[in-house]
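ingest -> validate -> predict -> emit
validate: passed (alphabet ok, no gaps, 120 aa)
predict: started
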Amino acid sequence: MSTTAQQALVLLVGGLATGSVILRLARRRLLSTRYAIGWLVVGFLIAVAAALMPYVGRIGRLADMTPTAVLLTMSSVLLLAISVQLSISVSLLQERLRSTAEAHALLARRLDELEQRASV
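emit:
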């Protein structure tokens, strides 16, 4: 079996394993539907990469890289995109939490004022 075929097989198994793990996590409600869909797409892309392995070698020759380096570069770009997307999500959640905490503090102060007026 050629090296390209072995790499394609590893990618295919990896993509299917990723999909399987994500489905289990989603069924146990440990992963929200939004993120489950995103990770299932990643697993699908990994499996599709297995079918595109012959082209990876051609891309590598054009860029003067080994096929493994091409795959690692593509993986790094994907991980960078996921990290940026998650950073955006966390930033939005932090802003919502801050706004909620401020609103809570204002309501608590208003309630204290009303209680003081009622007791006088």
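The chain has four helices and no strands.
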